[in-house]
Structure formats: C-alpha cells, structure tokens
Amino acid sequence: MKKLALLAALAAASLSTTAFAAEGNGGFIRAELGETRAKFDIGSITDTAYSIRGGYFFNRNVAIEGFYTGHGRDSYGGTTVEAFSVGVGVVGKKNFEADHKGFFISGRAGIAYTDIAVVDRNSVEFLDDDRDASLYAGVGLGYDFTEKFGLSLNYDYQKADISGADVKLNTWTIGGEFRF
User: CB neighbours of 33 closer than 8 A, spacing ≥ 6?
Assistant: First the structure.
C-alpha cells in the first residue's frame, strides 16, 4: 500500500510539473562557452571562458539564476593571472513567437563575486589573490527550438575593484539552455 501511495504521489508531482511548464515556469540549466577579455589598469588578458548557470522561471519572462564563470588565464613571463566569478541575479526574457519557442531577446543583472589570482609559476607562489563583489549585466539573442531547449549568443559585463585596480570583464558566449 505504501508503494502505491508513493507511486501516486510521484505521478501527481510529474503532472503538476507538466502543468507548470505549460505556463512557462520551471527550472533551467544553461552551459555557455566563449571568450573573456579582462582589462586591467596595467594590461589585459584574453582567454576561453565558460559558464554554468541554473535557475527558475517564475513565468515565461522572469527568472532567477545562480552561476559560476571561469574567465580564463593568461601568462606574462613567469606570472599567471587567473579569474573566475560566482553570482546570483534576475533574468528577463521575451520570445517573439510563443512561450519558450522561436526567436528571443534576454537580459540579466545581479551581483557577482569575482576572484583574480596572480601566481608566480616558477615558485608556485601566490603573488596576489583578491576578491570583489560587484554588479554584472548581460544581454542575449537566441532561438528556442522547443519549449525545453534553446541556443543563444550572450554578452556579459562586470567591473570589479581588485587590489585597488579597476578590472573590466567583457565576456561573449554561445549558450545552450535546457528547461525542465
């Protein structure tokens, strides 16, 4: 009898998830790959960037997200600079054809915690490792192939104050999003 009750509860939960998805709300996972150009007061780095994002759509247009972005690393002589960010924010999305179908534009903004480490590769010693919480903002243009999957081109901007120096992170990515 307990197994039957558990099975009935799972079936009801899956039906309610389907009903929620029809209204445009539900969870999502997004993977992005691209390039970050980090500009410092004394120079810049350009490297491959990747981002893992996840969140929840409250309706077809508004969501919250959490993310991790690896901005990459670059070397100057014997010194390596590496950067990453974690953050939370709000996402806005507008489909032009139907809920989570066809072409769309999106925007996102929130707060990101950025960490930039400078390492001497010869002695494997941290020369500097500083962090800053700052605002981020981004825009996207994409196409939802189904109610569950879409691709997009995205741009994100962050400005952080690391060790008294301004750091500007410009990140371009191509992303794939799975909604459930």
Answer: 48, 49, 50, 51, 173, 174, 175
Given a contact cutoff of 8 angstroms between Cβ atoms, the answer to whether 69 and 39 are in contact is: no
Tokens of 107: 């925007």
pTM across the whole model: 0.78
How distant, in Å, are the alpha carbons of 14, 96, 98, 119, 120 from that of 50?
A: 32, 28, 29, 21, 24
What is the architecture, at CATH level 2, of domain 26-179? Beta Barrel (2.40)
78-82, 122-126, 140-144, 154-158: which range is least confident on average?
A: 122-126
Write out pLDDT tens, residues 111-148: 999 887 776 666 555 445 567 788 999 999 999 999 99
Q: What is the pLDDT of residue 130?
A: 60
Q: Is 58 helix (H, G, I), strand (E, B) or coil?
A: coil
Among 111, 99, 100, 101, residue whose Cα is nearest residue 138:
111
CB-CB contact of 103 with 97 (8 Å): yes
Rounded to 5°, the CA angle 169-170-171 comes to 110
Tens-place pLDDT, residues 35-74: 999 887 666 778 899 999 999 999 989 999 999 999 888 7
